[in-house]
Each structure stands twice: as C-alpha cells, then as structure tokens.
Amino acid sequence: MIVGLPKEIKNNENRVALTPGGVTELVKNGHTVYVQATAGNGSGFSDEEYKSAGATILPTIEEVYAIAEMIVKVKEPIESEYKLIKPNQLVFTYFHFASHEPLTKAMVASNAVCLAYETVEKKDRSLPLLVPMSEVAGRMAIQKGANYLEKPLGGRGILLGGVAGVAPAKVLVLGGGIVGTEAAKMAAGLGADVTIMDISLPRLRYLSDILPANVKTVMSNSYNIAQAIKSSNLIVGAVLIPGAKAPHLITRAMLKDMQPGTVLVDVAVDQGGCIETCKPTTHENPTFVIDGVVHYCVANMPGAVPYTSTLALTNATLPYVLKLANQGWLTACQKDEELRKGLNVINGNIVYKPVADAFNMAYSPVENYL
Hints:
With 370 residues, the protein is an alpha/beta fold. It is built from 13 helices and 15 strands. It has helices spanning 20-28, 47-52, 61-67, 79-82, 101-110, 131-148, 178-189, 201-210, 222-228, 306-327, 329-335, 337-340, 353-358, and strands at 2-5, 32-36, 56-58, 70-72, 90-93, 113-116, 170-174, 193-198, 215-219, 234-237, 263-266, 287-290, 293-296, 343-346, 349-350. It has an 8-stranded mixed β-sheet, sandwiched between helices. The chain has a 7-stranded mixed β-sheet with strand order 9-8-7-10-11-13-12, with helices on both faces. 51% of the residues are buried.
C-alpha cells in the first residue's frame, strides 16, 4: 500500500503521525511511504531520518495526498485539506466528528473512508488509540492549570501544593477515566487537595484503592458538582462519551458560584467540551476569561509536547496502521472488530451512529459496507 504522512497544519500542532521507527516497520512489510518535507521537524525527527527509514520525501502536502492510498495523520483535516482528500482514500486520524459539523459534511462529500482513532474500541470498551494522548492531556491539564493559577496569568494566586502552614489548592476532576485519573495523580503528587468525580461506583472504588490519600472520590451528580465548584481553585473537565458530544456538567450560570481566579481546563473540548462556556482555543491564544474565571480550552494539548506525544501515539497506532496497510481497510475491518468500530464515514455514508445523531444526518450501519 502507498502510505502518506502529511505535515500537520493545525495551529501549533507539532506532532507527526509516525516516527521514523514506524516508517521502518511499514517499509519492512513491503509498503511505500511518502512523507511531506519537514513533517517531523516539530517532533524532533528530520527528513534525513525518514529517508534512512526508507521513506520518500515530497515537498508539498498536495503531492502527499495525491499519491497516497492511506493518509495517516494526527489531527482532523482542516478546511484547506478538504479538497485534497480523494474518493476511496483511507484517512486514519483523530476526527472528533461529533463536535464539528462542517468537517463531517466535508468528509461525507469527499467519498473517502474515514477511520477515527478515538472510536477504535477493544472488547473491554477501552479506547486504545485515545489512551496515550489522554495520559498526556491529563498530566498536562494539571501542569497548565497550576501555571494559570498564578496571579500574573489571571489566576487566584495559589500555589497548587501550598506550603507549611498554608492549605494547598483544591482541585476538582470531573471524570474518572484515563484523563481524570492521570490528572488526579499529577495534582496529588504536587500536594493538592484533590476530589475526583465519576458516575460509576465500581470505578470510584477502584480509584479509591489506587490513588493517594489526598484524593477523595465523590459520586458525580448535579448537586455534588454545584457544591464542589464553590471552593475549587482548579477544575478539570475530563468527561468522554466515545464518538459523541460531551455533556455540559458546568453551565454558564454556575460560573457566578466560583471564586474569582478559578481556573477551568476542559480536556473534553475536542468533543464539544463538558463546560458550557468552553470554546476551542490554541496554544497561541490558550485562555479567555468569563465572569472572572480563567478558561483553558486548547483542543490539541499534547501538541505542546510533541516529542513525547509522537512516540506515545506511534506506539499505539502502529499495529493498526500495519493491519490496514497489509490487508486493506475492508479486509482488516472485517477481521478486526476493534478497527471496525473506528469506521465513521464510508464513501459518503455516516456509519457511526453518535456522529449521525449529533447533526440529525442519515445513518447507515457499518455492516452494509463490509
């Protein structure tokens, strides 16, 4: 198969879809890999390293899309890329369709095959291609939140871990999945007073067992959230409904109950955000303030640490990339239920129901195309 790695062109997105090591594995399996010039520079991988791995370097993004049968990316295509995607071309990347109607309609119109990292799902319902970036984003949420709690950046002026004789900051984490667990670990490690909420009692029991003593587990419901936000200094939104829009757990009206200088970090922004006042921001302009509350809503947080993120992402995606390249998307998805669940759009048809439901668009079961 001919595999293309275009350079990411989303604002401040420095990751690349595969490391030179990943390219080596594809070439060893008999595939041809074309990499756009400087695609790996932001992650610390040079064109020479990709050449040594067996890739051919092409100067423009247009040439990569034109020649490739499978495009492997990190982030969803942006508007300037829509016209480059060809009918029957396989695009394997994070799409997060349910929060972006223009992208959904563009991919339907392209007649391409769109396989989304975020909906590839194992039998135990875990999301193997979301896990590595969720780990990075969860840890970064605390790193960034601690930073924006500083007074010069608009925060209340609180040191996350406090000092002797001074209480630490109160951190509220909404969601006990991978993002929430990593955020709670990081905040606890820095000495904060942490509360993590989830709707699953078995999950809360598990978290209570594994997390440090300075992390409290609380059942997530409207009343408990409304009470907790009043005294929290840093709130992390870490809610995920696979492939669907995140529910709003914090509304605009609730901001008035927060202390001035409270910091909100909404990691769920890729799926529409679990905080009503959230809107996607970039690393260039990461925050905005509403009612004295600082909002950090960067939609590609792991892009700020691209070396770590690219290595972690390739570790997770490469086995799936190899299956798709070795067998073709149709056979691979027929044989592999995990990959089959990643199919969102096939040749002009939405085959992932939560995406169709998000925009009241026509849905066609994936089985019709396998």
